[in-house]
Amino acid sequence: MNICVIGAGYVGLITALCFSKKENKVICVEKNLEKLNMLRNGTPTIFENGLNELLKESLSTNSVQFTENLEFGIRSSDIIFIAVGTPAKENWDVDIAQVEGVINQISPYIEKYKLVVTKSTVPVGTQRYIKSKLLENNVERENFDVVSNPEFLREGKAIYDFFYGDKIVIGCDSGKAEETMKKLYEPFKIKMVLTNPETAELIKYTSNALLSVKISFMNEIANLCNEVGADIDVIAYALGLDKRISPLFLRAGIGYGGSCFPKDTKALVKMSENHNCNLEILKATVNVNEKQRVLPVKILKEYYKNIEGKIVAILGLTFKPDTDDIREASSLYIIEELLKNKVNIKVYDPMVTKEIKNIFPDITYCDDMYECLAGSDAMIICTEWSEFYNIDLFKAGELMAQSVIIDGRNILDMKNIKDANINAYYSIGKGNIKN
Ligand code: UDX
Fold first, then answer.
1. Domains of the chain
2. Which residues pair with 3 in a beta bridge?
3. For residue 41, which of 153, 230, 231, 290 sits 20 to 30 Å off, Cα-Cα?
4. Low-confidence ranges of the chain (pLDDT < 70)
5. How far is it, in rounded angstroms, from Cα 316 to Cα 321?
6. Are residues 55 and 44 in contact, defined by beta-carbon separation less than 8 angstroms?
7. Cut 0.90: pTM above it
8. 261 Cα to the center of ligand 1, angstroms
9. How far is CA 315 from CA 30, 381, 406, 409, in A?
């Protein structure tokens, strides 16, 4: 099929390349010329597993092309995917200005039947709104259908998820659109959920919201574990054996981050309020996460009473390992809180230092974890990067001024800690040690 993907951001780029692998001709339209040049030259614009190879392969077979020419993209294609940003507004509403902009720009070029598909995460009712916009822009009714087709891609595993995901959700209100979408996704052999557009739009939000609820719930239970002497990992393991619960997304820690969960949970809370519904559980989930992500600062204050002037080493900045993404990462909130308390901060992350330097210019950036630990009064593990699992605790103890460890992702082995003779160790629901 001839496909146009508008927006070569995270979702758009993965969508364009993965469709191009399945014998489609894809034109990806991007207005950022720097990005465009990189992609045309086969240089990935984001860090993602397998992206480098996939990009080079699709370019070499001419199954994808990158252009700034929207008219060319629209006129050459039967299906148009909208994959532009839908950021959160200050009041938690979703800002769909970029989607609206795209609709206005493509309207003049829709002179024969096209399928307009939203990939961006958009509030419920957007499909209906796009239809009315296209009509308002004098696009003939028989020349378009609008479909909601949300994505469920995890960063770092996005290409795998596109090819082998658990579900494809398609929200249509026309038989013709449904047939085309079925044909497009047929080669992926993934279970399709065919429904109306409103349901499809709400599935996306509900999915991210439910996963966030699971995490916040486990985080609250973890906090209780520390009070009563229970072990959250064993609890998660036992719960996971129950097929009705599933073992995934039960890992306790210092909260969820990233580009989706924080934004989408708040958006769903706001969206429901806009419809006079009140999602109490989801509101609590958001609140729990906001407290959980700065829990290490509370622990430090309890330990030291006064943390002013202390040196704290932050290990890991990204919102999860194997990505360079720091959006909504717990580390950012912890650093902010520590700075308010006049703490001196050293950070180390195997992937990120450049972007965060603009946000926090006055903290110390280190090239390896031991350099980061040297002279510090505490370490906070914010991201479970694989190299932190093997940290030499004897060496850490020797290097640190005071070996107070806050293991925000529960990655250290309790037995090794007991042997290492450190000053204090705090986990998220696996018990604490104070020597
Ligand atoms: C998520 C969804 O998984 C994906 O389907 C959607 O399309 C986009 O949002 P992503 O943001 O890449 O993907 O990250 P994910 O791996 O889901 O983790 C999100 C956050 O939850 C991370 O901060 C992670 O540390 C945290 N998390 C995850 C936990 O704290 N505990 C868990 O058990 C799982």
1. 2-159 (3.40.50.720), 204-290 (1.10.1040.10), 293-434 (3.40.50.720)
2. 26, 79
3. 153
4. none
5. 8
6. yes
7. yes
8. 7
9. 35, 5, 10, 11
